Automatic annotation (TrEMBL):
Residues 112-134 are annotated as: Disordered. Residues 115-134 have a biased composition (Basic and acidic residues). Keywords: Membrane, Transmembrane, Transmembrane helix. It comes from the Bacteria. The chain crosses the membrane at residues 12-32, 44-63. This is Uncharacterized protein.
Amino acid sequence: MSDEEKRSVSLWDVVRSLSVLILVIVLSIKIYQTPLQLTVDFPTLLSLLLALFSVALAALFYFKATDTSNTFYDNTYKFTRDVAQLLAKMESGFGERLRHLDEGYSSMRSYLQDGGKKTGNEEVEKTKKKLEDEKQEVSKTIEERNRIVRDLIERSNLQKEEKEKIAGQLKEKEQELAQMQQEVSKLNRRLMMERVRKHRAESEFIPDDGGMNRFTYSHVIDKIGREKLMKLSPLGIKRAFSSLVDDLPRGYIEDLERLEYFDDGLTPAGASYLRALAHRHAL
């Protein structure tokens, strides 16, 4: 823009400002000189007051509605946020439990796929079953012998050959009975040896720490239940321990970790330790 144009614009601004100022002065003088008589009767005043009150009431309702709406949206936002956080925690907890379940399933599959090896409990149960079968066979043999003896007494008027035949049968049954008793004695000794071996195997899982063992029994085994714990599977023992782990001292958990009984959950060795300790107190 040239200097000439700048001077022209500045001149026009000055003229416009002066014109507006003169107009305002003239209007002010005119209003000042004009006499005003304001007369308001009571009905008009009452109508005016009612109108102002209506406007004020409408404004009050508007602001109150706005405040209520804002509060509602704030509460809705907080509720949605809390629900989202709760769902996230539930998903996290479910994932953790699913991981523990998967670990337990892997341990069970490894246990079932073990190369035909049997635990002490299986051997003891198998021996007990054989022992019960042998006892039943002994009872049957004794009953058979008694029947033969009664038959012999009732038929004592038989011929000599028949009596010798019955005596031979009785002798055979007595031999069978003696053989059965020997088998029962062998099974009893085997059962005793299995119990001793099982006790020694379980003792390997119990550390030489009397204080820790007493604490474990009073704060873990007693709360789970000794009889219940001895019947639980390793996965069941792990789940039962997980329900108590938050109430146990950190130092105790560190001791379990040092012994490899705890690693983000009870390990199979830890489950064997609890079972062995419960079995020791049952003896």
